[in-house]
Design goal:
Layout (H helix, E strand, L loop, with lengths): L3 H9 L2 H10 L4 E2 H5 L6 H13 L3 E6 L2 E6 L1 H36 L4
Helix pairs in contact: 1-4, 1-5
Length: 112
Amino acid sequence: MITYADAQLEALGDATRRSILTHLRRGPIAVGRLAQEFPISRPAISQHLRILKEARLVSDRAEGNRRLYELNPEGLAALRAYFDQFWSDALTAFQKKVESTRSKRRHEHGDR
């Protein structure tokens, strides 16, 4: 079973999609305008946007005859929560290591 986190990580595995997300940090943008920023075709950009949308990293809305794409805060928050699990684990492991090292030094120096 593929989770949203799996789809998001897979979507981020492509350099073009990561670059698209960077462009979208500036705000909503139409597909045609976004395509001008890349050395690939507009249909290729649309395909990348579709993958990012399926991964809930971007959303789109109609504005006249254009589609504007923007970052999806909820999807990015879910991705951040996924990575925060690892960060929390890493901080806990770091804290245990520091405490262990302090305890070892105290023991070696006779400080109790």
